[in-house]
Design a protein that fits this description.
Shape: globular
Number of strands: 5
Distance between the termini: 51 Å
CATH architecture: Beta Complex
Order of helices and strands: HEHHEEEHE
Helix content: 25-40%
CATH topology: Ferric Hydroxamate Uptake Protein, Chain A, domain 1
Strand content: 15-25%
CATH superfamily: TonB-dependent receptor, plug domain
Largest sheet: 5 strands, mixed
Strand order of the largest sheet: 1-4-5-2-3
CATH class: Mainly Beta
């Protein structure tokens, strides 16, 4: 196999529609509308994430010296903070365009202190 062919294969894996480690999953850190709607339009976003990306909901023990509350995941709707993961129970799947998870280190850099558990960002459909 030539170098060009190897680069093409590598590029396809990197840009990838699916994960090699998790077949059928497009992106470990994002859910698109069709994935959110897979449990039906009346499902809560909490139910969807619990089923499809349960690890997003789990508190992280990033630094044992920090209080446990700082290891909790924070939910945002666009740029507005909503609170903890329980807020996802009040968001209907039908209102969601996409959801993404921001890893703890990135969340601290982007959103500041108090985000060491990561951030779930919900992008809602235009009303």
């Amino acid at each position: 196999m030539g170098v060009a062919a190897l680069l093409l294969v590598a590029g396809a894996c990197i840009s990838g529609r699916t994960s090699r480690l998790h077949p059928g999953i497009r992106d470990l850190y994002r859910l698109q509308n069709d994935e959110v709607m897979s449990l039906g339009p009346n499902a809560s976003l909490y139910e969807v994430i619990q089923r499809l990306r349960h690890q997003w909901l789990e508190p992280r023990n990033v630094d044992p010296a920090l209080p446990a509350a700082t290891d909790q995941v924070v939910v945002y709707s666009g740029q507005s903070p909503l609170g903890g993961v329980e807020e996802l129970r009040y968001i209907s799947a039908r209102s969601v365009q996409s959801v993404r998870f921001v890893k703890p280190r990135d969340a601290e850099a982007l959103y500041g202190p108090g985000h060491s558990g990561g951030v779930i960002v919900v992008e809602k459909k235009d009303d």
